[in-house]
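Sanity check

After download, print the first record. It should look like this:
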Amino acid sequence: MAVREGLTAFVEFLTEDPRRARIVLIEVVGVNPEIEELRHGVLRAFADLIVSVWARQPGFDASGEQVHLTAVALSGAANNLLVDWMMTSQRRQPRVLVEVCSKLYLSALTGLRSA
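Expected structure tokens:
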């Protein structure tokens, strides 16, 4: 399943080295306007990737505003879940983070289909 595979790659990339995660998720925030725009661009690109995966689902119309906004919200949710992972003493296993995100993404897709 493309959702789980993509999330696994993303989560493992950041969690395999907490220093990398700290730089990417925390220290880069608000450095300067150019970096902040780049950071938001990465989150928007992540949202676009989510939409492109959803668009491959048979019979799913990925062109609507609700689809795009849902993907933006989910990209922020994944980001915040990883920030929480960094900032707490109870670091969950990466597979748990992937499972939570996968359920969110698939639930959102199901909700969008029924709307």
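If your output differs, re-run the checksum step. Summary of this record's structure: The longest helix spans residues 33-55.
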